[in-house]
């Protein structure tokens, strides 16, 4: 078991007691399967907690996040839900994953 997997498993009970919702952000395909599973389980267990939102970024970079946002916008254009000329800085910013996590109290970038 790796360090991050152990950290997640060792702390999830405390997160539950303290009302902490945990979320792991980043390219999950680059993480070991066991870490993906531990993160997914902890996210599910803590999903209804609302006192504090802890975001842990693993295998994350700003470029990765921009690529993900661009892909999401491209899919919307392909589905005729969005016109290319409607894409602007504001729309791109709203598509970023960190933007979809309002009110996050803490972020741990590793």
TrEMBL record:
SUPFAM superfamilies assigned: Undecaprenyl diphosphate synthase
This protein's record includes keyword Transferase: yes
Top-level division of the source organism's lineage: Eukaryota
Any single Pfam family the record assigns to this protein: Prenyltransf
UniProt keyword list: Transferase
UniProt entry tagged with the keyword Transferase: yes
GO BP terms, alphabetized: polyprenol biosynthetic process
PANTHER family named in the record: ALKYL TRANSFERASE, DEHYDRODOLICHYL DIPHOSPHATE SYNTHASE FAMILY MEMBER
Name of the protein in question: Uncharacterized protein
Organism: Arundo donax (Giant reed)
């Amino acid at each position: 078991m790796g360090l991050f997997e152990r950290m997640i498993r060792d702390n999830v009970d405390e997160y539950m007691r303290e009302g902490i919702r945990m979320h792991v952000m980043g390219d999950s395909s680059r993480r070991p399967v066991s870490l993906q599973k531990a993160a997914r389980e902890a996210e599910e267990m803590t999903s209804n907690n609302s006192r504090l939102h802890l975001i842990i970024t693993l295998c994350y970079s700003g470029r990765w996040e921009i690529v993900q946002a661009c892909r999401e916008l491209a899919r919307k254009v392909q589905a005729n839900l969005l016109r290319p000329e409607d894409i602007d800085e504001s729309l791109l910013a709203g598509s970023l994953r960190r933007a979809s996590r309002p009110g996050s109290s803490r972020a741990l970038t590793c």
